[in-house]
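Re: the request from the purification team.
They wanted to know what the chain is likely to look like in 3D before they choose a buffer screen. I agreed to run a prediction and write the result into the notebook, where they can find it.
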Amino acid sequence: MQHTRNDVLHRMRVTGLVPVLRATSVHQGLAMARAIAAGGIDVLEITMTTPGALEVIRTLVREEPALLIGAGTVLDAETARACMLEGAQFIVSPVTNLKTIETCRRYSCPVMPGALTPTEVMHAWEAGADLIKLFPASAMGGAKYIRSLKAPFPQVNFIPTGGISLATAEDFLDAGAFALGVGADLADPKQLESGTPEAITETARKYCDIIRSHREREPEHPFAPVPATQQGT
């Protein structure tokens, strides 16, 4: 199913979570994705560090049409395009690569480059980033750092990633995070290896409860529109 850029961004905002899947095989990646989805999360990021990542993306796009599938740890434009061709509906990177952003804009695919310092955030935003992956978020002071950045950059939507947990999720949301990039605290391969995928599903439900509770306390607001200077084709 094809989605517009605005559709994808709105869906990510409503879901409020972007699980980062790092698996050791195609089988494990698919099992982890389905365990998370069973807990109510419908947005997933498949990292390119997963062996057979393109196959995982292709299979999920084909067999799980209700899910929004993106590609993560994308380091160059060629990989970004390969992921799009397999059906990836958004691209995430730990770094800001201008050619990757340009390629995503060309094909109207939402792109979330990584940035950390104010200068990096501005460069990524001016280059056409739809969202900014703030990584590693916890190492820079966690929610307090989000608040510090939102002061000069109220128009930028951040997805903090790195060290997000059930214990800190609400703090990040209160600080103004657009959504949360959740890694090993949710997408834990050890749970699959021990034969307890239901533990992943239960953790997913807990994250969904946190998002739901936060949305009830704070009115929903749409994502910031992309400035005219950033509009691509």
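For the purification team: The CA atoms of residues 46 and 71 lie 5 Å apart.
Please add any questions underneath this entry.
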